[in-house]
């Protein structure tokens, strides 16, 4: 079991009791521990560097109040800064979906295959039906994997929402437009569009999802990313963020044993709020994202 950050820093600061402030020199050694803790949590290096630079800027010269040791003071700065980077300063509404549009509000799901998109569509459909009483239609724009369409149909039925069948001979753009037309005529409040995901980033896939985006102009474009992806999350997030104007992130598989460093990497690249966390395979395993809790988890 790894030591948590407080324990690690406690070891470092044993030698520096009595210093009243955080200084360049006593901060440097502690920041090395913070850096290691973040790398162990699988945060990608560029995100670690940016974070350390921020903490350094905030902590040097900060008064140590009362009985706090410099180590405790630094842990405080690290925790606050990490929670802020996770979105704590954005306020609770940052994790809410935007419905301020003429219905149906369209939600486009993007992400690699296996990230949890289809499962998340089912979870969102259930969440929206139960919490907001919205009438939800789902459609799959994945024309390559009939099994994925079947999976969407199943989770949609479990969520008690409506499903628009996909003709795999049609183009993804035409499928999305047909579903939109159907949703308008049947007074659906929300249309959730699931899309094809490849195992890796690929240009054709990006063009295809960009074309769907341009055709239906979704109010929400959610990037679904597996928390277990670790450091690779940064490259995936960059590719999707470059191709699409993302509005939010869904971080899945947080019930796994990853420390969730992917959250920081993805925030670093996209700057978009993490709106939801996937915490189970089953359809009620979706939670509003909690930045402070995530910060504590990353710090171990
Ligand atoms: P897609 O290819 O992006 O549509 O991914 P799927 O929705 O098919 O999910 C891939 C696998 O991850 C499936 O076995 C899901 O049950 C599983 N999965 C998705 N979200 C979660 C989650 O939050 N927790 C866990 N434990 N499993 C998940």
TrEMBL record:
Catalytic activity: GTP + H2O = GDP + phosphate + H(+)
Enzyme class: hydrolase
Domain Signal recognition particle SRP54 helical bundle as annotated: residue spans: 1-86
Location of this chain's protein in the cell: Cytoplasm
Residues annotated to bind GTP: 111-118, 194-198, 252-255
Coiled coil region boundaries: none
Keyword annotations: Cytoplasm, GTP-binding, Hydrolase, Nucleotide-binding, Ribonucleoprotein, RNA-binding, Signal recognition particle
Top-rank taxon, per record: Bacteria
Enzyme Commission no: 3.6.5.4
Biological function: Involved in targeting and insertion of nascent membrane proteins into the cytoplasmic membrane. Binds to the hydrophobic signal sequence of the ribosome-nascent chain (RNC) as it emerges from the ribosomes. The SRP-RNC complex is then targeted to the cytoplasmic membrane where it interacts with the SRP receptor FtsY. Interaction with FtsY leads to the transfer of the RNC complex to the Sec translocase for insertion into the membrane, the hydrolysis of GTP by both Ffh and FtsY, and the dissociation of the SRP-FtsY complex into the individual components.
Domain notes: Composed of three domains: the N-terminal N domain, which is responsible for interactions with the ribosome, the central G domain, which binds GTP, and the C-terminal M domain, which binds the RNA and the signal sequence of the RNC.
Subunit structure: Part of the signal recognition particle protein translocation system, which is composed of SRP and FtsY. SRP is a ribonucleoprotein composed of Ffh and a 4.5S RNA molecule.
Name of this protein: Signal recognition particle protein
Phylogenetic lineage: Bacteria, Pseudomonadati, Pseudomonadota, Betaproteobacteria, Burkholderiales
């Amino acid at each position: 079991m790894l030591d948590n950050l407080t324990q690690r820093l406690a070891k470092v600061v044993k030698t520096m009791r009595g210093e009243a402030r955080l200084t360049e020199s006593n901060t440097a050694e502690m920041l090395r521990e913070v850096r290691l803790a973040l790398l162990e949590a699988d945060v990608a290096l560029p995100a670690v560097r940016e974070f350390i630079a921020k903490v350094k800027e905030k902590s040097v010269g900060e008064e140590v109040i009362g009985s706090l040791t410099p180590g405790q003071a630094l842990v405080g700065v690290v925790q606050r800064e990490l929670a802020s980077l996770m979105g704590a300063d954005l306020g609770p509404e940052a994790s809410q979906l935007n419905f301020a549009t003429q219905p149906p509000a369209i939600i486009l799901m993007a992400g690699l295959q296996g990230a949890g998109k289809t499962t998340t569509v089912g979870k969102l459909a259930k969440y929206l039906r139960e919490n907001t009483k919205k009438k939800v239609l789902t459609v799959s724009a994945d024309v390559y994997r009939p099994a994925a369409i079947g999976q969407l149909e199943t989770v949609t039925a479990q969520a008690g929402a409506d499903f628009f069948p996909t003709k795999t001979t049609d183009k993804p753009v035409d499928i999305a437009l047909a579903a939109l037309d159907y949703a308008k005529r049947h007074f659906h409040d929300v249309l959730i569009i699931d899309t094809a995901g490849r195992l890796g980033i690929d240009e054709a896939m990006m063009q295809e999802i960009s074309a769907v985006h341009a055709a239906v102009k979704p109010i929400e474009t959610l990037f679904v990313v597996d928390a277990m992806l670790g450091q690779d999350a940064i490259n995936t997030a960059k590719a999707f963020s470059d191709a699409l104007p993302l509005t939010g992130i869904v971080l899945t598989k947080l019930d796994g044993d990853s420390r969730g460093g992917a959250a920081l990497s993805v925030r670093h690249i996209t700057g978009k709020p993490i709106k939801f966390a996937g915490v189970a395979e089953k359809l009620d395993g979706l939670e509003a994202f909690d930045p402070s809790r995530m910060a504590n988890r990353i710090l171990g």
